[in-house]
Automatic annotation (TrEMBL):
It comes from the Bacteria. Residues 13-265 form the GP-PDE domain. This is Glycerophosphodiester phosphodiesterase. One of its GO terms (biological process) is lipid metabolic process. GO terms for molecular function: phosphoric diester hydrolase activity.
């Protein structure tokens, strides 16, 4: 990958649209991915979970209540867990109206649909396995979809990172697809970073926990594929914080307002 041979300063920090450009369009929808594209943002973050009948869907919360009209459509199905609904039921929901009437009728995308849109838009994907402990075997299913849509090919897999707060799940992804870049979400103690570097190519901490010393400690290590470990941090929506984090040396900034961050730090 040509990018990795250039000094980091030459290409700038990567800017990742969190759940899509979710300050401007309903999170984790195709509209939010398109909004990021329209803003000129290459990278999109999303969250993947699984329905009762085994379909992978893009949704952040463990329940459908906050970001859809599920309480109105299925009033008797509290607490409206993603895993209690079929794909067909979820397809009936409106995932846009809660955000604004402009997005009425926006759907909860299946992972398959979301990935196809990433391909079509020429975007890069920071895929989060959300609560994978609730969905045994989800790593293999996600990897199968990625493979089926060509994302594990040599030319495409550099546009992909699979991350999770669940270290066991990240390890499983690495074992099942050793060439796929992985990220661990969190801030492990410096003394433990070496263990994470056996299966994670990135350490992705909450921005309030990042220091220059921490970034340096991560950068001193090489990941499972021999490349310098990277730091993508979240979730940063203001220019001053973004600049401070770039000064500390982070490689990526995950933002609901990726245009603000891009304009502040000159990334892409
Ligand atoms: O990509 C990092 C960030 O999304 C992790 O937090 O809760 O927004 O999934 P959360
Ligand atoms: Ca996430």
């Amino acid at each position: 990958a040509p990018d990795e041979r250039l000094p980091r300063g030459a290409v700038g920090v990567r800017v990742i649209a969190h759940r899509g450009a979710s300050a401007y369009a309903p999170e984790n929808t195709l509209a939010a991915a398109d909004k990021a594209r329209d803003l000129g943002i290459d990278w999109v973050e999303n969250d993947v979970q699984r329905t009762r009948d085994g379909e992978l869907v893009v949704m952040h919360d463990e329940t459908l209540a906050r970001t859809t009209d599920v309480e109105r459509v299925f009033p008797d199905r509290a607490p409206w867990k993603v895993s209690d609904f079929t794909a067909e039921e979820i397809a009936q929901l409106d995932a846009g109206s809660w955000f604004s009437s402009e997005y009425a009728g926006e759907k909860v995308p299946t992972f398959s649909e979301f990935l196809a849109r990433m391909t079509e838009n020429g975007q890069k994907l920071l895929l989060e396995l959300k609560k994978p402990e609730l969905y045994p075997g989800i790593e293999r299913e996600v990897l199968k979809e990625l493979r089926d849509q060509g994302w594990l090919n040599y030319s495409k897999r550099r546009d992909l990172v699979v991350q999770s707060f669940n270290a066991d799940s990240v390890r499983v992804v690495h074992q099942q697809a050793p060439r796929v870049k992985t990220g661990f979400l969190g801030t492990p103690p410096v003394s433990q970073l070496r263990d994470y570097a056996r299966f994670a190519d990135q350490i992705n901490p909450r921005h309030t926990t990042v220091t220059r010393e921490y970034v340096d400690a991560v950068h001193r290590l090489r990941g499972p594929q021999g490349q310098r470990l990277e730091v993508f941090t979240w979730t940063v929506d203001d220019a001053a914080t973004a600049r401070r984090l770039v000064d500390m040396g982070v490689d990526g900034i995950i933002s609901n307002r990726p245009d603000v961050v891009r304009d502040a730090v000159g990334g892409r």
